[in-house]
Design goal:
By secondary structure, the chain is an alpha/beta fold. Helix 6 packs antiparallel against helix 13 and helix 10 runs antiparallel to helix 11.
Length: 343
């Protein structure tokens, strides 16, 4: 994919690049089962090599010279978010579903998630990363993950119009998308985004333990609203180590560039794949994606047992002859402008 995108970028006849899924989903993420399998039967660096290529692709899309339009008409999770969210124009429909559920399998939100989640309103990014909560298209538009909302029945018409565009002028491209857009689709009443004040109050806490405690207190006061019950349930079922990694990663991302976020995420991911600190990714993959008994045995088994020192080890460069720091492709001189958050 990276080679094709680079070719389009250099092709003077290509004015705009459109990203869309080939089927009902946009992209539900990478094949974690295959990656974990290659790590188990081969060497952990095989998995790291895959992610190095994925991060390079995400970075290239985020710094793309030409207008990039993502058409999201289905599920976009994990690695799919890295392909779509970095685009300048992110078009969603009523069929769109966004989530970053990595902590449930012993991973953490990556592909630049610590950059784009940390730039959502308030502490909504921490909420999404820690709970793996799902958003629909209207919620994606409301919080800034999407730039436009178009009904699915109009998506083909929009794409046809975009294919007629003979300029790379972002204003003209947005004008074409605006012709088909619904400015403010209704966000459902029970949406967690409508409870942003409570989310900010809970998820602004410094530790995962404090966030959970705050959520439980709010649940008692608000007659157990559905989103709160689901948030608490998902956090208690997720890998305790992953939750702590996720929170620290997003907090650090608030003060870092996309390039810095990807470099740090690659260090964390490499340590996760190597499995010398814990093997939670293998266990989560077994329990959630292979045997599907939904009964992962996390190590350590609870938040209290996950020390700051243990978490810090994931953020430390890997000491292994097969490992090297993330190397991202050289990009154009206007990198500073391109790397500004699209959200």
């Amino acid at each position: 994919m990276l080679t094709k995108f680079q070719a389009y970028e250099k092709d003077s006849t290509t004015k705009i690049v459109i990203l869309k899924g080939n089927g009902r989903a946009f992209c539900a993420g990478g094949d974690v089962v295959s990656i974990v399998g290659s790590v188990v039967i081969g060497h952990w660096s095989f998995g790291a090599s895959f992610y190095q290529k994925q991060y390079a692709l995400d970075y290239a899309l985020a710094t793309y010279k030409k207008p990039l339009v993502s058409l999201i008409n289905g599920v976009v999770m994990g690695g799919g978010a890295g392909l779509s969210v970095h685009a300048a124009c992110r078009v969603v429909t009523e069929n769109a579903i966004f989530a970053m559920p990595e902590a449930s399998i012993g991973l953490f939100p990556d592909v630049g998630a610590s950059f784009f989640l940390s730039r959502l309103p308030g502490y909504f990014g921490e909420y999404l990363g820690l709970t793996g909560a799902r958003l629909d298209g209207a919620e994606m538009l409301a919080c800034g993950l999407a730039t436009h909302f178009v009904l699915s029945k109009d998506l083909v018409l929009l794409e046809n119009e975009l294919n007629k565009v003979r300029t790379s002028n972002p204003t003209e491209i947005r004008r074409q998308i605006d012709r088909f857009s619904i400015a403010t689709p209704k966000v459902k009443g029970q949406s967690a985004y409508a409870r942003l004040e409570i989310i900010n109050k809970c998820f602004s806490n410094n530790t995962v333990e404090e966030i959970l405690l705050a959520l439980e207190k709010e649940m008692m006061k608000n007659d157990g609203e559905k989103w709160m019950i689901e948030a608490i349930k998902s956090m208690k079922a997720a890998s305790p180590t992953s939750l702590k990694i996720c929170l620290r990663s997003i907090r650090e991302g608030r003060k870092q560039t996309l390039e810095q976020c990807l470099a740090r995420e690659y260090i964390i991911l490499s340590n996760v794949l190597k499995g010398s600190i814990s093997t939670n990714l293998r266990e989560g993959t077994r329990a959630k994606l292979i045997e599907k008994d939904n009964k992962p045995k996390w190590e350590p088994p609870n938040l209290q047992s996950v020390s700051q020192n243990m978490v810090h080890r994931y953020f430390t460069e890997v000491d292994d002859p097969y490992w090297e720091v993330l190397r991202l492709p050289d990009r154009h001189p206007n990198l500073a402008e391109a790397l500004k958050s699209k959200i």
